[in-house]
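Researcher: We're reviewing a set of sequences before deciding which ones to prioritize for further study. For each one, I'd like a predicted 3D structure that I can look through quickly. This is histidine kinase. If possible, include the structure in token form so it fits the rest of the review sheet.
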Amino acid sequence: MGELTAEMVEQGRGRSPGRERRRRLAQDMRTAREKLTSSTGLQRAFDYEFLRVYAEQHRRSSLVVLGIAAAIATVSSTWLPAPMAAAWFAFMSAAIGIQHSLSRGFAEADPTIVSLGTWRRRFALSDLLLGAIWAAAFKELAEVPGGTYGFALFMGVMVAATTAVLSAAIPIAVYAGITPLALVALGLLGLTRDFGSAILAVMTSAALVCFIFLGHRLYDSTLSSLRWRAERDQMLVELEEAKANSDEARRRAEEANLAKSRFLATMSHELRTPLNAIMGFSEVMKNEVFGPHSNPAYREYSGDVHESGQHLLTLINEILDLSRIEAGRYDLSEEAIQLSWAVSEASHMVAMRAKAKGQIIRDLIDPSLPRLWADERAVRQIVLNILSNAIKFTPPGGEIEIKVGWTASGGQYVSVKDSGPGIPEDEIPIVMSSFGRGSLAIKTAEQGSGLGLPIVKGLIDLHGGGFQIRSRAREGTEVIVTFPSARVIDALPAVDIPRGPPAQAA
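Model: Here's the predicted structure for histidine kinase, in token form for your review sheet.
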């Protein structure tokens, strides 16, 4: 089984900083390389998408453009000779067919090997050819006397608008398609002598410039849309990758947690067996069951061995309890208990230790509290851990106050407040962490594993209750645990059994 490292866990939550920097660097290098090989300064994927949009729009609108050309040729035949109009329509049909074939050819080409620059030039030349044929009809109609000047200008504006919309994905194609029309419009402006016609020619030229600007705006809008879509696709890829990393990290964490549980179970058995022998024999030697020691120091050493064994056994039990809580395998054996009795019993158990240090324990316990639905062993361990910490860090002659009562929400609470040196606010998260010890415990060399408060927090969480520490340096410490109102067993009212009439004697 592979080892679960911090980097794997970080990958499960997201990307590690080093991995993120490498990914961005690789992406920047790939983007720069694609820009260097692109003729427009964009990524190749964007260049290809613009050409694809151009080809798709022209392929779908070929019949529409052909219909417009047929309508213009039909109307133009009223002013121009019919053979001339038919020839113009034939040239226009051929140009539209060429453009349609180019669009289909690009759609069927392999995107990975297609030459984008070559196809861009082909499309621009096809637009130039169409623009020249449109410009020829524009010129012929404008030069026919008899009121065709306005129709010719209208045709030029309509063709320019169509070109700007259909070819906006390739700006050079917009220039190629509108330039012939603009040249004809400028030529008519220079040749006309009528003021009204000159005004129309000027307006037509201005409209052609506006359509070129419109083509640029459509191009920018398409570019923004493509960039947004690319960012969205990249985000989806990153989310999928992050999910895969998270699943892998979770799998490894579950395997590591299972291995930890097996290790603790095995080591618990292997450690407790010799430890029980050590504690048993040391107790026999300490109590001089088989006779006094020849040297009184041996009895003292035996007592030290016995106390050390008890401390080690307590540490093993605390580690096992915490591991079961964290793994969600601590099963509560719930029953109806009296919280005040459980607290009084725990207080009695630690009273000798407090008396040895000259400490006073004050009990403010409400004996009328109803019972709780809880695990008695867990509740006793909660109270013992809190009281042991209070006795440990309260100086000789200090006071410890225990309160048991109602909470504002209808639950019950246990409060243990001491007159010790207190805990600095910045150290509260430390003492709440597993194996965490505050600066006071380190300075005074107090024995302890740093697991008491985390176990209390875990056990009270299993009961759905709350845990709170109120402390400041040199002002003492108050630890409060609360049980929710849902665990309070209310006294049931007496059942009123109606009495019937007295039975008649037989």
